[in-house]
Inverse folding.
C-alpha cells in the first residue's frame, strides 16, 4: 500500500482556508510530513490524492517526483492536475503527457480534465489542449464537444458566477 511518506506536494500546491494557507507555498505544518496530522483540518483529511488512491499509477507518478498532484471532483467527473508553478511544464514531460492525454479520452463521455498552473487553466482533450489563460477562481469552466459541420469539435469556456456570461 502506498503512503505519502515525505512527499507533501498537496501541502504546497493546495490552498487550505482553515489554515490561512495560500496555494503554491509550503504549509507551515509540513516538516517531512504533517506535524498536525492527527488534528489536521477537514480539507486535509478529506483530500484524496489520485496517486495514493490508484494502483495504476507507479512511483514515477508520486507527486514530489512528477511535480504535480491529481485529484477528482464533481463526483469524479473532473480530473484536476495541479502543477507546481516552479516547474510549469512538468505535466508535459513523459511518461506523464502521453498518459494524461489517454486519460482525456473520457471527455467523450462527459468528463473533464483540467490542468492548473497557478491561475492558468488548460482543458485537455484527446487531440488538443485548450489554454484558457488566467481564470478567476470564482468562475466556472465548462467544456465538452459541440457538433460543427457534422463533426465533434471540442470547446472550453469560462463562465462568471456573477452574470452567467461566457468569456474566452
Amino acid at each position: 500500500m502506498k503512503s505519502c511518506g515525505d512527499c507533501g506536494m498537496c501541502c504546497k500546491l493546495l490552498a487550505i482556508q482553515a489554515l490561512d494557507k495560500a496555494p503554491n507555498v509550503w504549509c507551515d505544518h509540513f516538516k517531512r510530513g504533517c506535524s498536525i496530522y492527527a488534528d489536521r483540518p477537514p480539507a486535509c483529511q478529506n483530500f484524496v490524492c489520485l496517486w495514493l488512491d490508484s494502483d495504476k499509477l507507479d512511483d514515477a507518478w508520486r507527486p514530489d517526483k512528477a511535480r504535480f498532484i491529481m485529484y477528482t471532483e464533481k463526483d469524479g467527473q473532473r480530473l484536476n492536475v495541479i502543477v507546481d508553478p516552479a516547474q510549469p511544464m512538468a505535466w508535459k514531460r513523459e511518461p506523464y503527457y502521453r498518459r494524461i492525454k489517454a486519460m482525456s479520452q473520457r471527455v467523450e463521455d462527459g468528463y473533464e480534465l483540467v490542468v492548473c498552473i497557478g491561475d492558468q487553466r488548460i482543458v485537455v482533450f484527446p487531440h488538443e489542449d485548450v489554454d484558457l489563460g488566467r481564470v478567476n477562481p470564482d468562475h466556472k469552466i465548462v467544456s465538452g464537444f459541440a457538433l460543427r459541420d457534422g463533426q465533434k469539435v471540442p470547446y472550453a469556456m469560462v463562465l462568471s458566477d456573477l452574470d452567467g456570461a461566457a468569456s474566452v
About this structure: Residues 85 and 117 are 6 Å apart (CA to CA). The first strand starts at residue 68 and ends at 73.
